[in-house]
């Protein structure tokens, strides 16, 4: 297989010391439309993750919710070799994923000894194993958004290049057997639109939620090679609420009938939506604006056309949750030419 | 002082066994306008926390993210005596709060021995000390919303009555010295409107975010009695993003100038907004619809007119974060006639 890493079109590598000169002028159009960064150079076309001209005027940058900072930590030494970042809601799951990757890449040392880099805070957990960073992001768009802002600044301060991001998570499926893995084609909002609305200074800005198609196709190929569980590419709906927002009948509040619920879910199904989760719009939008290749891989825990409650036995749920992990681990091994 | 508990107007207590007959018809108008529940009885005016006619048709209710359920746990025995529920973002902080309340109420046993009732999941942490429940909710509206749905169902299944809810948290202040405690008068959104927009089956429903004025005034009185730190009543803005959404210049993305940021914050200040956080719109809206008396008490960690980064020393931040806890502990002691 041809490595995706070789397809990024980067002719020269970023020089660590030149971060002061690397910021290009920021226009809202580039934040919205993800215009490819073009520098004033005939030879260097480089990635520029952060999109903020103010950062280079700061003497210190405290990544408050990660409990890291540019004066208190040597971020290039700690994180400079990162090539893959995997994010997921649960801290325990992201620790397990880091241990799994440690074993899978046959890294030296004991996988049980990896420590939480964010251990001074309980907002997020972060583990590093070789070139892979595994971070939890909690539940919902605001929670993952805080983590992504600080992660992207971390990658910038650490002078990371050619980084790929993966969201591995759980979801409710629409018309799929539980346990199916959905690799996201388009992320859509509650109105089935492929966009993310961000309020900035009291004004609504709309951003595209397009993900990297090459990564999605490569991940599907990985699943075919593993042939261990059903995997499809489809659209993913991201909502801001688990109960009313996803048409569940079992919340503390519910004002609609089962027929109205099913009508909504069937409309979603007709729009190509295969699963529903709560973080992928802002994940896709921020990665796109920040020139980070990204993919969303979520397993379905139930078929929402058949019910709302997650009553599958715990051990089956645990196995389901490992499926996106297997897929991403296989992808990473191929990227690193270890297979 | 006259106890607020005596002001609820409840003439007869809810009979535990009659939950099957207690659901009144649900109309969207009652969900939106929080119409007081009137039963077909001349004598009983009772609280009805859940607003969902489907719940009583369910054989089992699995509170998935709390790792509790009606078949696996005896919820009335575990939680039936709850009178005060305190929620906050950080799991560690809510554990500390539970230990603090344990000491403050002089309950028997060792405060260090209290265990996380949700220990089978890392989504939320929950501690019970006497009549007080302390729960973490993570960051952002979607995260607290999931917890509130399951908490309110828990209170319903456990046949709790006369429960008061408190959100104790951290926030950015506007024009206040760091460390000031803000008891929320009105919760407003990013457009300074006292409302919460909830998407239900692809349609936007608007709910009031009015909180209990009696609790706010009583909490201010408690602060006067303690006279340990500055406390005010003011409006609180709730945003869905910590960086761009709160006008910060130090995120991974920023497309506005310091002048534009200050213009927005000054407009907020003119609208009576004293602090900014990320959960209170949905907290106020859900409590109001579900007939739960509620208050929001947040300490300010910085003055946003002077900066964006939280660079205050750790020990000072820890002391600031204890201030809302002291206030609520004092309030609870007064309610229990322990002072």
TrEMBL record, chains A, B:
It catalyses: uridine + phosphate = alpha-D-ribose 1-phosphate + uracil. Catalyzes the reversible phosphorylytic cleavage of uridine to uracil and ribose-1-phosphate which can then be utilized as carbon and energy sources or in the rescue of pyrimidine bases for nucleotide synthesis. Shows broad substrate specificity and can also accept deoxyuridine and other analogous compounds. Pathway: Pyrimidine metabolism; UMP biosynthesis via salvage pathway; uracil from uridine (phosphorylase route): step 1/1. Signal peptide: none annotated. Belongs to the PNP/UDP phosphorylase family. One of its GO terms (biological process) is uridine catabolic process. InterPro entries: Nucleoside_phosphorylase_CS, Nucleoside_phosphorylase_d, Nucleoside_phosphorylase_sf, Uridine_phosphorylase_euk. It is an enzyme of class 2 (transferase). This is Uridine phosphorylase. It comes from Ameiurus melas. One of its GO terms (molecular function) is uridine phosphorylase activity.
């Amino acid at each position: 297989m041809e490595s995706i890493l070789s397809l990024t079109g980067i002719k020269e590598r970023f020089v660590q010391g030149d971060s002061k000169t690397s910021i290009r002028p920021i226009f809202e159009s580039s934040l919205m439309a993800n215009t490819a960064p073009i520098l004033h150079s005939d030879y260097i076309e480089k990635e520029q993750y952060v999109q903020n001209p103010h950062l280079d005027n700061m003497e210190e940058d405290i990544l408050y919710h990660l409990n890291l900072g540019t004066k208190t930590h040597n971020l290039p030494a700690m994180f400079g070799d990162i090539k893959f970042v995997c994010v997921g809601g649960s801290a325990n799951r992201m620790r397990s994923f880091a241990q799994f990757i440690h074993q899978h890449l046959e890294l030296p040392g004991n996988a049980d000894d990896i420590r939480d880099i964010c251990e001074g805070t309980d907002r997020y957990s972060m583990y590093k194993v070789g070139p892979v960073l595994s971070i939890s992001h909690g539940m919902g768009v605001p929670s993952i958004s805080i983590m992504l802002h600080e992660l992207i600044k971390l990658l910038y301060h650490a002078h990371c290049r050619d980084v790929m991001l993966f969201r591995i998570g759980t979801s409710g499926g629409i018309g799929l057997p539980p346990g199916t893995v959905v690799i996201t084609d388009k992320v859509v909002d509650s109105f089935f639109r492929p966009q993310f609305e961000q309020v900035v200074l009291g004004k609504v800005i709309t951003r595209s939620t397009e993900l990297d198609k090459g990564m999605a196709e490569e991940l599907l190929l990985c699943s075919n090679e593993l042939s261990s569980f059903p995997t499809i590419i489809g659209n993913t709906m991201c909502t801001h609420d688990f109960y009313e927002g996803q048409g569940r009948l079992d919340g503390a509040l519910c004002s609609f009938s089962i027929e109205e619920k099913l009508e909504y879910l069937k409309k979603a199904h007709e729009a190509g939506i295969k699963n529903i989760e709560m973080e992928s719009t802002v994940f896709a939008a921020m990665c796109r604006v920040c020139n980070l290749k990204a993919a969303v891989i979520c397993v379905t825990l139930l078929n929402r056309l058949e019910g709302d409650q997650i009553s599958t036995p715990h051990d089956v749920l645990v196995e389901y949750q490992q499926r996106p992990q297997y897929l991403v681990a296989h992808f990473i091994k191929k990227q690193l030419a270890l297979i």
